[in-house]
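Re: export button greyed out
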Amino acid sequence: MSTDRLSRQIAFIVEADKLKAIERRTPLTDNSRQENSAEHSWHMALAAMTLAEYAPAAVDLRRVLELVTVHDLVEIYAGDTFAYDPNASAHASKAQRERDAAERLFGMLPADQAVYFRECWDEFEAAATREARYANALDRFQALLLNMSSGGGSWKTHHVKREDVLRRMAPVERETPELWPFVVDVVERFFGGRTL
Amino acid sequence: MSTDRLSRQIAFIVEADKLKAIERRTPLTDNSRQENSAEHSWHMALAAMTLAEYAPAAVDLRRVLELVTVHDLVEIYAGDTFAYDPNASAHASKAQRERDAAERLFGMLPADQAVYFRECWDEFEAAATREARYANALDRFQALLLNMSSGGGSWKTHHVKREDVLRRMAPVERETPELWPFVVDVVERFFGGRTL
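Workaround output, generated via the alternate export path:
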């Protein structure tokens, strides 16, 4: 072990602490505050374990857990872009901001590990492998559970439309179809003005 | 898929959201607030990935990630017991409180999954497998990084003694010996009154 190698690894872990300060638009279930991206990532890992039987066939849970742990790290520098932001320029600049952030953050690590973490993030973003597709579906589904439990959450606060929620939830229908009737029921109750 | 099965799984994921409200004694690196147990669990997962080369030989990273995701969940009902609490009765009652919490929380799940999550938690607690021993070392090491980065953190606030920190860090020496010189250096700097 080189001391420089360990120093870089420790600096990366310490820097990653900043993800706990990145606020999402989704509130906690008790509406006490907004969720942050670090605890959201943990909650996705727990959901990945709990809902594994609905994942695409032969999904590798280890890879899913790696992807969810890494998927939001770039927000430390790039910030969280609200999924329902009506401002198109926020989404247009998102990809470049996040790629720059990935260079900077993963570049703190020894070269072999910079590649490993970058591959995790790229894989999640591309949503091409079954593990990344499942992780993306969980990202949407976990947010739905918080919005449901907090009486509407970010849908209510930001006046999101029914069709935008359903479009956002499309990966759930595609990757974890057994969860889809539940999603539709939650959306219909909320937009039908019934109790969630 | 039975609707009842999915309902129980969803109720469990929603209930687990409460871990985000369980405060630890350790502050974030910028000292802005105390860390919560959900984001701590995520940070341990990231550390598990980053420091894997120092883990006991042939450690199964998938199992490590499962263990760290589950290891603090019982605190939802049992609360966080401060590692350096001088009150012996807090530690004496901890085991029973946490076992009761595990029954209650994992009992929300379908029976097969109650067993799976309970086994994760028991495995972490027993620290008998190499995965659980690595996870326990990470639990200590991650707290050291936060205390180091925040200028002393819970060691300073609670006037913890040098020998108590070293005793608490013993799993790091035992399971990840290559990290031990770094731990000793941090402890010597802090207790020697030098800059961390």
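The first strand of chain B starts at residue 23 and ends at 27. The button fix ships in the next patch.
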